[in-house]
């Protein structure tokens, strides 16, 4: 598997809400960042007044 394929697989797994390798520090950081962004998006949506 090429480095590009590995990166694509990691990003696909993160987009699906998973984490392919729990021992990879970079993957763990990315997973935390993705979760934080999703939490912020949910919070901002719930705070937006309806018209």
SSE diagram, text form:
Blueprint: H1 3-15, H2 25-47
The description of the largest β-sheet is: none
Whole-number average pLDDT? 76
Helix content: over 70%
Low-confidence stretches: none
**Separate helix tally:** 2
| Overall 3D form | elongated
| SSE ordering | HH
The secondary structure category is mainly alpha
Q: What's the total number of strands? A: 0
Radius of gyration: 14 Å
Question: Distance between the terminal alpha carbons, to the nearest Å?
Answer: 50 Å
Spell out the key features of this protein.
elongated; mainly alpha; 71% helix; 51 residues
Q: How would you sum up this structure, described in words?
A:
This protein has about 50 residues and is mostly helical. Helix content is about 70%, strand content about 0%. The protein is built from two helices and no strands. The protein has helices at about 5-15, 25-45.
């Amino acid at each position: 598997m090429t480095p590009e394929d590995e990166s694509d697989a990691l990003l696909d797994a993160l987009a699906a809400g998973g984490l392919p390798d729990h021992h990879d520090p970079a993957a763990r950081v990315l997973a935390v960042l993705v979760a934080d962004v999703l939490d912020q998006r949910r919070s901002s949506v719930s705070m937006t007044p309806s018209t």
